[in-house]
Amino acid sequence: MAGLYIHIPFCKTKCAYCDFYSEEKAEHLMLPFIDALTRESDLYRNTFPPGGEKLGSIYFGGGTPSLLPSDCIEILLQHIFLVYPSVSEPEITIEVNPGTVNSETLAHYWKIGINRLSIGVQSFNDSELSLLGRIHTAEQAEQTIRTAHRTGFNNMGIDLIYGLPNQSPRTWRKTLERTVSLSPKHISAYELTWNQSTPLGKQITSNLIPTPDKARVVNMYLWTSAFLNHHGYEHYEISNFARPGYRCLHNDGYWTDKPYLGLGPSAHSSIGDKRFWNVSDIHDYINVLSQNRLPIAGEETINYDQTLLERMMLGLRRKEGIPLAWINRKTGEVDRLIQAGLMSRETDRISLTTRGFLLADEVALHMAALPE
Amino acid sequence: MQKQNIRNFCIIAHIDHGKSTLADRLLEATGTISPQLMINQVLDDMELERERGITIKAHAITMVHKTKEGESYHLNLIDTPGHVDFSYEVSRSLAACEGALLVVDATQGVEAQTLSNIYLALENDLTMIPIINKIDLPSAQIEETKTQIIEILGINEKEILLTSAKEGTGVDQILEAILQRIPAPGGQTDAPLKALIFDSVFDYYRGTIAYIRIVDGKIHKGDNIIFFSNKKTYEVDEVGLLRLHRIKTDCLRTGEVGYLIANVKNLKDAKVGDTITSAENPASRPLPGFHEPKPMVFSGLFPAIAENLEELRNALERLQLNDAALSIQPDNSAALGFGFRVGFLGLLHMEIVQERLEREYEQNLITTIPNVEYRVTQRGGDSIKIDNPTKFPPLQNITKLEEPYISAQIITPNEFMGNLMKLAQDRRGIYKNTSYLDSNRANLQYEFPLSEIIFDFYDKLKTLSKGYASFDYEFLGFRESDLVKLDILINGDPVDALSMIAHRNKSYEWGRKLTQKLRELIPRQLFEVSIQAAIGSKMIARENVKPLRKNVTAKCYGGDITRKRKLLEKQREGKKRLKQLGNVQIPQDAFLAMLQIK
């Protein structure tokens, strides 16, 4: 099964922490953008999905995809199904910003076949929301979730961010409790990562607001895992939790080496040993596609060694871990990791423990740097 | 050239007192080099020397000087290295001269190195021409400097010349004094050949080029010669004068300075200080003062990547072609694999060699803690010299341990005496004597274990005296000492390359400081790392590097994946440069941790 990612680069206002590509106040570009997207999807008509596979998931990410009129989404989806063969009921997710949708929008989504929502709640604390530069309140977020439930969306994910400057474990607990009380099937809890180029990053680097306390962030992570486990959520990836049967198929594809095509500015694709990515700027994107050329900014063919490193780094992110065979002759290291409580082993697979998840990159690096 | 028209001299000065600038002015004034051609400080031709402002290798140059009366003289300027590491080389250069220009910076006055060079000059019966330089500077203290010089040399004030080498003032008087005051070379023209090698360099096309001073007799192309120290004979291929380039001549005569090429393949066969004589008509005795170059400081040099061992060997051998003082032996460390134990004249020599290996030969090196050579007497009575702590026999087998001592003089303004005496005490110094150069300058004499001054003694001395004090030393001999071997254990395993020899009274302090420094230098990793210091089986210090708790990317989708993979690839390359000791990764500079301890 293959995945299709569509990047919608529009935002009402950019959030203080976000370094994804998007444009503010660019509604006038929406129609040319939709036109460019359909052209781009056409250009992959015969090459995607590769090797006779079928499309298993579609993911509208951003930016703020819910800012796009739902009619546009409908047109896009119709076109996609025209162009690519797909399984009978693919997972179709759209990221929703609580401040941008009402019950009609959600109902329209449901009608056109979208069957999963990823709601960017981030926090149920209003002062945290304003620190993050979100355009909605905690109450609006809760109402959006309730409306979505009523509309029929059963498969819903809530995105949260923790490890904010000055965040107390108490406000985080409150956010989690309120989240759980709304019974979403899926929760993503991301540690705040701030890039120096973002407004929040600038404030932190110039000491206007404090750096989140490292030890506290570690403790919050461990507590989050335990808390959500207790409430029936499986910790299936470093930052992702789901009730049984409700993992995000699309995202799981990234970590299990499934092919995916990214459409839209700055989107990345991975097909076989090819990695390629689009130009970031929406004007360039539209311009290149108006000449029916692919808007690819860069590409790379990765070798066996790089493939192994990538698979290991991604595989270790998942609860199921990686086959033991991938780290042949390094089993002494596995034993040490097990002893240190960072890893567990089940016959022919090894995986990281919750504490190990916190060191996933270090473990991948450690394994990759060991002499054969 | 007739010997009465030859003057052989050198310039002795403390670092930065203006030796090279004065040499430049002399070269210009005699027309040896035109000012347009002048690159500053012609005599220092290695990049590294120029950066450090010191002359590492001695060179020589013949200047042809015509007097107003039209008489022609050969002025042979023999350059001398300017650092205490090279004091033997200095002494051999002085031995090739009859006179010395003693240059003293008017803003600094007499310093320790000036003083020890004056002693060397006196030992070689050189006629000294004292010159006060930098008189143009506002901070020049001409009268005080004069007083110091008069005090030391016991001369008349009228004999002191004043110059500003930078501005070129006083140069004519200096040339005049060289002709008038420095005696022409002595020696017997009809005696058997005696030539002193005062320097030698290696040339890939010609082999060793010896820089020589003819003391007695003469030497022609085609002569058969013999080297006193090793009794090897050679046929002279070429002799000549050293101008800006080599100028071939038929013959070098008594009193002359020049070069000799005789198909000597190895630099070590033409040792500095050795005497060349004629194979057919040999002199009965060599010139006095020769000894083998003697390394004082030893360190392990290992390739950062084991496969580069051969490359490192080649680089070291090439360096050795031009540096007979460098001793090289294969070494093998459990921690660092195969490498070399290298002996240096001193710490500066070591730094220069390291830098040249890294810069000119692009070697990625791991250097271990430098140490001196110890004399160990074992049960049964045999006494051996050990230059590597890992080769130390077990303490219970040792009946006597000796370490090298030096005699040092520290010249300092009076106000810093207290600071410096405290420093000397910290370094196990034995106070001998104080004398005064003038009302404000003391000359402190101490004896030190060499091991106490090879690291940061000089820096400390400068800091404690606001840069005013200076320091010089010479080797005294071996003395019994209460020494112990300090081992460092990483995760319980001793790391041979981190062992050191320390005085018992200081071993606890060293143990504590070393473990603390290593804790800073070893990055946190997946597992805890314990660092212990031990003497024998007794643990004396311990530090832990706590394990990492977090290194993870929260979000990893699409583009994040490529970015992360590329970062890991880069970090993996970085990790490969770390040294794997058992299951701990140690950065290369950890092996020199001791040098970073303040």
* Average of the residue pLDDT scores of chain A: 95
**How many β-strand runs of chain B?**
33
CATH topology of the largest domain in chain A: TIM Barrel
CATH topology of the largest domain in chain B: Rossmann fold
- What would you say the CATH architecture of the largest domain in chain B is? 3-Layer(aba) Sandwich
Radius of gyration of chain A over all CA atoms, rounded: 21 Å
Write down the overall mean pLDDT of chain B: 88
> What is the annotated CATH architecture of the largest domain in chain A?
Alpha-Beta Barrel
Please outline the major beta sheet of chain B. Answer: 8 strands, antiparallel
Low-confidence stretches of chain A: none
CATH homologous superfamily heading of the largest domain in chain B? P-loop containing nucleotide triphosphate hydrolases
What spatial order of strands do you see in the largest sheet of chain B? 11-10-16-7-8-15-12-13
Based on helices, strands and strand pairing, what is the structural class of chain A?
alpha/beta
Euclidean distance between termini CA atoms of chain B: 56 Å
Characterize the structure shown:
The complex is a heterodimer of chains A (372) and B (598). Chain A is an alpha/beta fold. Chain A folds into 2 domains: 2-255, TIM Barrel (Alpha-Beta Barrel); 315-369, no CATH class. Chain A has 14 helices and 17 strands. Chain A starts with a strand and ends with a helix. Chain B is of the alpha+beta class. Chain B folds into 5 domains: 3-181, P-loop containing nucleotide triphosphate hydrolases (Rossmann fold), CATH 3.40.50.300; 194-278, Beta Barrel (Elongation Factor Tu (Ef-tu), domain 3); 297-369, Alpha-Beta Plaits (2-Layer Sandwich); 386-480, Alpha-Beta Plaits (2-Layer Sandwich); 484-596, Elongation factor 4, C-terminal domain (Alpha-Beta Plaits, 2-Layer Sandwich). Helices cover 24% and strands 34% of the residues of chain B. An 8-stranded antiparallel sheet of chain B has the order 11-10-16-7-8-15-12-13. In chain B, strands 2-3-1-4-5-6 form a 6-stranded mixed sheet, sandwiched between helices. Chain B is globular, with a radius of gyration of 27 Å. The model of chain B is unreliable at 48-58 (pLDDT under 50). At the A-B interface, helix 8, helix 9, helix 11, helix 12 and helix 14 of A face helix 12 of B.
